[in-house]
Design brief:
Helix content: 10-25%
Structural class: mainly beta
Largest sheet: 6 strands, antiparallel
Length: 433
């Protein structure tokens, strides 16, 4: 009979826990739950420094290649009480501070204090003290930054806050395990009151109209309800929360644009390969409407909307497909015709609509809703990004019922000249409050 071979640590554990006959095994101590903290964006598992030092202000006078061991040798080690004070926000030191962390992958850090000039976080990479982030303003009270994962051969991460001579004052520093860009985005989708994707073509002053619906992943807001204080550039996710007692008033909790998160602490720059917001937006829409082979899907976001029926049209299966014919001539003046059309059926009547202008430019920048008097409805085409467009419909009379169907043909794919269809989707004016 074969005797199963167990690892030596399992055998040792079994021997140490085996009680004498009639003697109960000692109770197992309860597991310690890890501590977490948040900045309103992510939820970070607390990373506790294994050591910390007060650093002389002239430490980098010879250059930024001073070995970490030499920096430690010239610095004053903090006591355990002093280290704990910085995590609790009760620390206070004028000058540079150094924290030693265990190698645990990417780490997010939040610094709070006072600095008349921009503080700079630096990380020892084995050869030089590299800058791992920066703040927005020259004089700051707090900011966040990311410490990239160290090489596996390095068991410790040395992180220093440097300032102008000794004018920097550190009061609090917190560290947490960074969960990744996608985890923060998905957490924001679950917790925010409204989540808006601002497409690259968005211009608040040039259109679309104030009553046009925004591309909301959560909630339903119009252009006029986007916070005026939000200086949001195109191709950005904005996560909004209620502001004050007004039901429609919002403030920006945080935003994400091409590898940079921004919250009340300022920008948090991601050092790896950033997520492209436009591609991520398409992926989220595709997840909401899974399909096998049909490259086009059409869904109604809210059957009982506040004002506008908003339909989401997704084109592509594994990747976004083109919405318009590409320009083929050297002059680039051809192409631009839509490859998709939307049919609205009401009773025995039917109309076909599509974005107007070359590559839909006239519809994307429309300052007022387009009107269809034959079937009595107003509509906006809302451009979101590659392979994704929204159609907002508002009936202009009561009662009003219709069905919507979308078609798509990829004319540049010689192997697939079929016309694909999605729908129909039923709309009823009786559901509008």
């Amino acid at each position: 009979m074969m005797i199963p071979v167990r690892p030596w640590w399992v055998v040792l554990c079994a021997l140490s826990c085996a009680p004498e006959e009639g003697t109960p095994c000692p109770p197992v101590p309860p597991a310690v739950e890890p501590a977490y903290w948040t900045d309103g964006m992510g939820l970070y598992r607390e990373v506790v420094p294994i050591d910390a030092y007060f650093v002389p202000a002239d430490i980098f006078r010879p250059g930024y290649d001073v070995p970490a061991a030499d920096v430690v040798a010239r610095s004053q080690r903090m006591t355990a009480t002093e280290r704990a004070a910085y995590a609790a926000g009760a620390g206070r030191h004028t000058g540079f501070v150094l924290f030693v962390l265990k190698h645990e992958g990417d780490i997010v850090a939040r610094w709070e204090g006072r600095s008349p000039m921009r503080p700079i976080p630096r990380v020892w990479d084995g050869a030089i003290w590299q800058s791992s982030g920066r703040s927005d303003n020259a004089a700051v009270a707090s900011f966040e930054f990311l410490i990239p994962a160290a090489e596996e051969s390095r068991r410790s991460v040395y992180m220093m806050i440097e300032g102008h001579l000794s004018d920097i004052e550190t009061r609090a520093v917190r560290f947490g395990a960074y969960p990744g860009n996608e985890a923060i985005l998905r957490r924001g989708l679950r917790r925010a009151d409204a989540v808006v994707y601002v497409p690259p073509s968005f211009r608040r002053r040039r259109g679309p109209g104030a009553d046009a619906p925004l591309d909301c992943l959560v909630g339903d807001l119009t252009v006029a309800e986007l916070p005026q204080t939000a200086s949001l550039s195109g191709d950005t996710f904005a996560f909004l929360v209620r502001d004050g007692t007004l039901a429609r008033q919002r403030q920006v909790l945080f935003s994400y644009h091409h590898g940079t998160f921004r919250n009340r602490y300022g920008p948090l720059y991601w050092l790896g390969n950033p997520l492209r917001p436009d591609v991520t937006r398409w992926q989220l829409a595709r997840e909401a409407t899974p399909t096998d082979d049909n490259p086009i899907t059409l869904r109604l976001l809210d059957p009982e909307p506040r004002e506008w029926f908003v339909l989401e049209l997704v084109v592509g299966t594994d990747a976004p497909r083109a919405l318009f014919q590409r320009a083929m001539r050297a002059s680039q003046r051809d192409g631009g015709h839509p490859l998709f059309h939307v049919e609205v059926h009401r009773g025995e009547e039917r109309v076909t609509i599509a974005p107007k202008g070359r590559f839909g430019e006239d519809s994307w920048g429309a300052t007022e809703a387009e009107q269809n008097e034959a079937l009595n409805f107003a509509y906006y085409f809302v451009y979101v990004g590659a392979g994704l467009v929204k159609l907002a419909i508002r009936p202009t009379e009561r009662p009003w019922e219709a069905s919507v169907r979308a078609t798509y043909r990829h004319e540049w794919d010689v192997q697939d000249e079929r016309t694909y269809a999605a729908g129909p989707v039923k709309l009823s004016r009786g559901g509008i409050r």
